[in-house]
């Protein structure tokens, strides 16, 4: 069956990404000879939904080796990223485009599908996960809809293609993709059959690789409809399977509401802390199971350490907080404490606290080791010890004690230290 004989009533002509120089060049390169290439998946779906498009994937009837040749013949770089599964990344105008040869999945087990390449567009559409991800578009923006998915776009409705239970069992990551997509599209009515298949297949989440889970989970946590979607996952017992600990769904919900009230962008790591981190062990476990980066791990560990902040904290307390945890840490501490309090996201006192933290400069401790050495302290551990003592004094003062006073105190400490040492000799 040719692509052009499938349903084609809609058009996305005028979509910005259709005129990106990279998109134009990839279409031109791949449509050489008698091959057909169509954009597929997220780009078409999101354009129809009026959502922004970040990247464009292609489907083509050309076999992967031919895709490599066609791209290179057009002067484009082609990388055989997943050539065994038919995927080549074509780089054009500094962007990577994933080009996948039409395929049917002969046998699927997670990401390791045994595939057969085909020229059948319906077979290619059918092996995809959700109907709304099986929409194609040509360079002019004419949409091809082999599975009649347009009705699902109109609702929008995230629905597995074919037998939901079987599709979940083929690749349990699809459970997370289901909740992530519903969260991104902010759908209110989840497809009953698809939801039920996800719930029935939830034990399969255990076998997924950390990276794959993390990729979906981070996007889910940061999505516009994250609260609704994660609440569903919680209600049906799916979150425990992913977090491997007790989820705090209400703290997460309050945190998300507070971020929204403050007009802040959703912060996936802060939200992950909110939903799953109570003590350091939670942070370490999540970082290990989700194979998080060191920066992400540190963020979660820090989340566990953040002290309780009171909404009526005075300036000294806030300066100490900012000094110890930095501006971002102090901000997170305020949000965490607010979310743990009974106060709603509309609370004015908490909002003021967050604004006060945002305005505070990061205090700088005015002394350095070199100052003490200049005063006669012997280089070595003693310097660090005195500095710590003076820093405590300075923190006690709410980070206001002047350099002059601290130097005077330092002089005293250096002297008594020296006397003690000489007395011992
Ligand atoms: P986004 O880029 O927003 O994640 P997308 O739909 O483009 O959306 P990709 O992960 O880029 O998602 O995948 C491209 C297409 O490949 C999807 O639209 C879908 O058709 C198919 N696909 C991706 N992952 C799976 C999967 N696990 N099972 C079946 N089909 C999949
Ligand atoms: Mg994509």
Can you tell me about this structure?
With 425 residues, the protein is an alpha+beta fold. The chain folds into three domains: 3-154, Beta Polymerase, domain 2 (2-Layer Sandwich), CATH 3.30.460.10; 164-305, Orthogonal Bundle (cca-adding enzyme, domain 2); 369-424, no CATH class. 52% of the residues lie in helices and 9% in strands. The chain contains 20 helices and nine strands. It has a seven-stranded mixed beta sheet with strand order 3-4-5-2-1-8-9. Strands 6-7 form a two-stranded antiparallel sheet. Strand 6 and strand 7 form a beta hairpin. The longest helix is centred in the last third of the chain and has 26 residues, at 315-340. The mean pLDDT is 94. Magnesium ion binds at residues 41-42, 55, 57.
Give the biggest beta sheet. 7 strands, mixed
Helix content: 40-55%
- What overall geometry do the principal axes of the alpha carbons give? elongated
Q: What is the overall pLDDT average?
A: 94
Distance between the termini: 96 Å
Which ligands, by name, code or SMILES, are bound?
adenosine-5'-triphosphate, magnesium ion
CATH fold description of the largest domain: Beta Polymerase, domain 2
Work out the radius of gyration. Answer: 29 Å
Please count the beta strands (DSSP E, at least 2 residues each).
Answer: 9
- CATH architecture heading of the largest domain: 2-Layer Sandwich
Structure class? alpha+beta
Q: Unreliable runs, pLDDT <50, ≥5 residues?
A: none
CATH class of the largest domain: Alpha Beta
Total discrete domains: 3
Percent in strands:
5-15%
């Amino acid at each position: 069956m040719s692509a052009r004989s499938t349903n084609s009533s809609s058009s996305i002509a005028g979509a910005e990404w259709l005129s990106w120089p990279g998109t134009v060049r990839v279409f031109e390169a791949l449509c050489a000879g008698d091959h057909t290439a169509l954009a597929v998946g997220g780009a078409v779906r999101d354009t129809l939904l009026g959502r922004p498009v970040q990247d464009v994937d292609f489907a083509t009837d050309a076999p992967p080796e031919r895709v490599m040749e066609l791209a290179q013949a057009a002067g484009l770089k082609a990388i055989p990223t997943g050539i065994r599964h038919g995927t080549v990344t074509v780089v054009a105008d500094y962007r990577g485009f994933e080009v996948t040869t039409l395929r049917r999945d002969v046998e699927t087990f997670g990401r390791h599908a045994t595939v057969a390449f085909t020229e059948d567009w319906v077979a290619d559409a059918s092996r995809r996960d959700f109907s709304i991800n099986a929409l194609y578009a040509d360079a002019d923006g004419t949409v091809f809809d082999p599975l009649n998915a347009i009705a699902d776009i109109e609702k929008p409705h995230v629905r597995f293609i074919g037998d939901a239970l079987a599709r979940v069992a083929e690749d349990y990551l699809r459970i997370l993709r289901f909740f992530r997509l519903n969260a991104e599209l902010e759908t209110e009515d989840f497809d009953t059959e698809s939801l039920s298949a996800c719930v029935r297949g939830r034990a399969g989440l255990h076998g997924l690789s950390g990276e794959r889970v993390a990729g979906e989970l981070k996007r889910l946590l940061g999505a516009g409809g994250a609260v609704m979607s994660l609440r569903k996952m919680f209600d049906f017992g799916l979150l425990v399977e992913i977090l491997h600990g007790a989820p705090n769904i209400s703290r997460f919900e309050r945190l998300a509401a507070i971020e929204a009230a403050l007009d802040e962008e959703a912060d996936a790591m802060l939200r992950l802390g909110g939903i799953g981190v109570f003590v350091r062990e939670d942070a370490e476990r999540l970082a290990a199971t989700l194979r998080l980066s060191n920066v992400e791990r540190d963020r979660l560990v820090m989340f566990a350490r953040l002290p309780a902040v009171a909404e009526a904290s005075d300036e000294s307390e806030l300066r100490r907080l900012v000094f110890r945890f930095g501006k971002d840490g102090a901000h997170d501490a305020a949000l965490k404490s607010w979310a743990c309090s009974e106060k709603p996201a509309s609370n004015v006192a908490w909002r003021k606290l967050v604004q006060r933290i945002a305005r505070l400069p990061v205090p700088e401790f005015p002394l350095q080791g070199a100052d003490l050495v200049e005063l006669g302290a012997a280089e070595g551990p003693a310097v660090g010890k005195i500095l710590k003592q003076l820093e405590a004094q300075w923190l006690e003062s709410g980070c206001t004690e002047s350099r002059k006073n601290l130097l005077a105190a330092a002089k005293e400490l250096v002297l008594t230290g020296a006397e003690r040492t000489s007395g011992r000799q």
